[in-house]
Design a protein that fits this description.
The complex is a heterodimer of chains A (350) and B (508). Chain A has 350 residues and is an all-alpha fold. Chain A has 16 helices and no strands. Chain A has a single domain, classed as ABC transporter involved in vitamin B12 uptake, BtuC (Orthogonal Bundle), CATH 1.10.3470. In chain A, helix 4 runs parallel beside helix 6. Chain B has 508 residues and is an alpha/beta fold. The chains are: A mainly alpha (350), B alpha/beta (508). The interface between A and B is medium-sized, with 22 and 29 residues.
């Protein structure tokens, strides 16, 4: 029984992606474009040569962290919509530490990343604390905290770190994630060392949830607070801890942007969108570590590859947004897919 | 005999597992027909076949003498078959009337004609003696009332045949009496009833005939007037069952639990336990007996640390454990079989194996320096599953997938295995069949015989009188009497539970 169940777990996201691409093809056909050319351009733009592959992996990196943040909270029964805000404050904290100190690299870089994690964790602590103590729903608080983060970070960039500038200076080289090696093998893409951290983070999340007593507790509280309390676990402590860990993942996602991709932080007129895409990544990845990594790779490829579509095939890159939306739609309506699979199996049996 | 429903030779398989094998059930017009079987015997499957949720692999269904093919629940409704589910299907924030007419609303200019609907509900409830307030919100009425709403829902849809799925499992003794009255009124109005149950007493009291199934097979149909509970139980379980649990004289020693002057408030802040005193000694089973809502739940929650005591002290083996957190209470030597096994007893989405270490996961050998050792966890689980006869495909099966009886056995295994000095068993046999009940009672008595103190809470008088060595009657948050189960009677207990003092002949 467990074998067929695992198969369904995998089948839903895979079929959703195929359906999404298929629907995208139909839309291209209807709007007078050539789907084959469009998808060829998408593929070339994502994996066509080493430069594009590097860009895809770079784009994937923060998605992994955002996806892990959402998935971690979700596995412990919480819905962290505040990944976007936690990512922004993590970004700022990393850049700040990257600018403010002059230290050897082996101290400076970890310190900058830890600062990002701590800032994200603090941003996650507030909704966790409010939920634990006052039963305020975390969705409401985290949504509000996103806006707070956006404007607070903008204020710090303009008025605290710089003197009225739109962006901070680049972080010191000792706090940078940029890698000459990775750039050289990817034809000078912006790929940076963060990709290694993303993989480590995924393994860490898996280990924490599946192998530790902390994970046993957190998941138990997520499934059934009453039974957890009966068993002597502290429900409130676990709620706060879960939001703090989730926020830390999101915060490091921000470090990836600040120390790797951009090397600085600039005034954001709106959300980066990575935190919200993280919800989709977690959903598509079934809230598992390996699933999040694969879904983040897909999202990275779609986002980066789409930029090549108008150039190579004349298909507008907004089409990829539609495809992503449809993939999410099909995952969310997984019930429909499992039902279809059930019908299919029955017919086969007959 | 005229049959309104005939299910002939029904067979239903799930992936090679035969849930129903050649079962025949014939319901005569105007009778209450019991469908009796252990948990997992295939009662629900059979009724789901009748209700159109499953299609049988073999067999025929006849309604009023005509062959029918019931493809879905709507078809069953059209044929006049209505189901009163065990877990109510009601919208909490809707009124009684809104729930009853849901999906079948009387309309007026495209809006719901609530006046007419209320009128209809009043008529129906008057006709069958089901007094409910049509304008009350579901969230505000008692479980017994909610069940009446479920019954009215089927009647509103014109049901002639009503299926009651374990209707008494959630009711208090008083509500059960009322339900029996309602069922009789329904029969008088020409309805026919199938009663799914494993409670033999109820069958003896209200049913005309009973069809027994065991492990998916039809054992046969007998007239209730020609049978007795012992015979029915042996038909159901397939062997002789003893109702009075065999046990030797208790040899109580020192006090294990001492509760002095305990007061506890309920969730609304109203005193539920008032200045209560209670002793439980090593080597005895003390049964707490009382009508639901007299402070039993709060008492147990206070002892186990789930609720704060307002006043008084709780001592375990002479050590003050008042105000201890649940983990400290557990570590001090208290085992707790909780009243609601789904809410408190198990994490249903965890494998049954990891549920076994719910309180001990942080200790060796199940974990070391924060890292779980699932191999040890499952090893332990496998031992307990075998020892406590938990029927599960494997240790990694989700707890949710197990039947109620097996979930309960797993909990009892977990609590007993920790070898606590005080074992609190709150309604340990609720909703279980006679086989499982017998097993659990034996285990409780074994604990007592090995010198442990056992505190038993139950709403079943039979259970209290059979298993306890001493009965403490609770009324309005106080222990009003300690009686000897060997010399007391149900009548005496009934009076004490209702608040009349011992020896007084008038009820207050």
């Amino acid at each position: 029984m467990s074998v067929s169940k695992n198969w369904t777990v995998l089948a839903v996201p895979v079929i959703s992606v195929l359906f999404g691409l298929l629907a995208g093809a139909i839309i291209m056909l209807v709007s007078g474009n050539d789907p084959a050319a469009g998808y060829a351009a998408l593929w070339n733009g994502a994996f066509g040569d080493s430069f594009y592959t590097g860009e895809t992996l770079r784009q994937m990196t923060p998605y992994v962290f955002a996806g892990l943040a959402v998935a971690f909270a979700f596995r412990t029964g919480l819905f962290n919509i505040g990944v976007e805000g936690q990512l922004l404050v993590g970004w700022l904290a990393s850049v700040w530490v990257g600018l403010a100190f002059e230290l050897p690299k082996f101290i400076h870089l970890p310190l900058a990343i830890l600062a990002g994690a701590a800032a994200g964790a603090a941003w996650g602590f507030i909704p966790g604390f409010l939920k634990a103590r006052l039963r305020v729903h975390e969705v409401i608080v985290t949504i509000m905290m996103n806006y707070t983060a956006l404007h607070v970070t903008n204020y710090f960039i303009r008025d605290v770190i710089s003197d009225g500038a739109d962006a901070t200076d680049p972080v010191h080289e000792t706090a940078s994630l940029q890698s000459e090696f990775l750039q050289s093998i990817t034809d000078f893409s912006s790929l940076h060392n963060g990709i290694y951290l993303a993989v480590v983070a995924a393994i860490l999340m898996w280990f924490m949830l599946e192998k530790t007593t902390l994970g046993y507790e957190l998941r138990a509280v997520g499934y059934n607070q009453h039974a957890s309390e009966y068993a002597g676990m502290s429900v409130n402590r676990n709620i706060i801890l879960s939001m703090v860990i989730s926020g830390a993942f999101a915060g490091i996602g921000g470090s990836m942007q600040g120390l790797g991709t951009f090397g600085n932080m600039f005034i954001n007129s709106g959300f980066s969108g990575i935190g919200f895409d993280g919800i989709a990544v977690a959903l598509l990845g079934g809230n598992t570590a390996i699933g999040v990594v694969l879904a983040a790779l897909l999202f990275g490829a779609l986002k980066v590859g789409s930029l090549n579509m108008p150039i190579e095939s004349g298909v507008p890159n907004e089409l990829v947004e539609i495809v992503i939306a449809l993939i999410i739609f099909f995952v969310a309506s997984s019930y429909m897919i499992t039902w279809l699979l059930g019908r299919f199996k029955k017919k086969e049996a007959k | 005999m005229d049959y309104v429903i005939e299910m002939l030779g029904i067979r239903k398989e799930f992936n090679g597992f035969v849930a129903n094998d050649n079962i025949t059930l014939q319901l005569a017009k105007g009778e209450i027909h019991a469908l009796l079987g252990e948990n997992g015997a295939g009662k629900s499957t059979l009724m789901n076949v009748l209700f159109g949720l499953y299609q049988p692999e073999a067999g025929r269904i006849r309604v009023n003498g005509k062959d029918v093919h019931i493809t879905d629940p709507n078809k069953a409704n059209d044929l006049g078959i209505g189901m009163v589910h065990q877990h109510f299907m009601l919208v909490d924030t809707f009124t009684v009337t809104e729930n009853i007419v849901l999906g079948n609303e009387p309309k007026k200019f495209g809006t719901v004609n609530m006046k007419k609907a209320e009128q209809k509900v009043r008529e129906l409830s008057g006709q069958y003696g089901l007094s409910v307030d049509p304008t009350a919100k579901i969230a505000d009425i008692s479980v017994g009332m909610q069940q009446r709403v479920e019954i009215l829902k089927t009647l509103y849809r014109g049901a002639e045949i009503l299926i009651f799925d374990e209707p008494t499992a959630v009711l208090t003794p008083q509500e059960i009496k009322e339900l029996i009255g309602i069922m009789r009124a329904l029969i008088k109005e020409g309805k026919s009833i199938i009663l799914i149950t494993h409670k033999l007493k109820e069958i003896m009291e209200v049913c005309d005939r009973v069809t027994v199934i065991r492990k998916g097979k039809g054992i046969g149909t007998v007239d209730v007037s020609e049978t007795n509970p012992n015979h029915l139980a042996s038909l159901m379980v397939g062997r002789d069952v003893t109702f009075t649990t065999e046990k030797t004289e208790a040899a109580p020693a020192h006090n294990v639990l001492e509760v002095r002057g305990l007061s506890v408030n309920d969730s609304r802040g109203v005193p539920a336990v008032r200045n209560l005193n209670l002793d439980v000694r090593a080597g005895e089973i003390v049964g707490i007996c009382g009508v639901d809502g007299n402070g039993q739940t709060e008492l147990i929650e206070a002892i186990t640390g789930l609720r704060k005591a307002a006043e008084g002290s709780i001592q375990l083996n002479g050590k003050d454990i008042t105000g201890f957190k649940p983990r400290k209470v557990t570590e001090a030597g208290v085992g707790h079989i909780p009243q609601d096994r789904h809410k408190h007893g198990l994490v249903l989405d965890y494998p049954i194996g990891t549920n076994i270490v719910l309180q001990t996961y942080y200790q060796k050998p199940y974990s070391k320096t924060g890292i779980m050792n699932y191999k040890e966890v499952y090893k332990k689980a496998a031992t307990l599953i075998k020892e406590f006869d938990v029927r599960t495909p494997s240790e990694t099966t989700l707890a949710r997938a197990l039947s109620g009886g097996n979930q309960q056995k797993a909990i009892i295994g977990r609590e007993v295995d920790r070898n606590p000095d005080l074992l609190i068993a709150a309604q340990p046999t609720r909703g279980l069949d006679v086989g499982a009940i017998e097993f659990i009672h034996r285990r409780l008595i074994e604990q007592r015989d090995s010198g442990k103190a056992v505190l038993l809470l139950s709403f079943e008088l039979d259970e209290i009188m059979n298993v306890s060595d001493r009965i403490a009657v609770i009324y309005e948050g106080q222990i009003v009497a300690n009686v000897d189960p060997k010399t007391t009677t149900e009548q005496e207990l009934g009076l004490l539970m209702a608040g009349s003092k011992k020896g007084a002949d008038e009820r207050v």
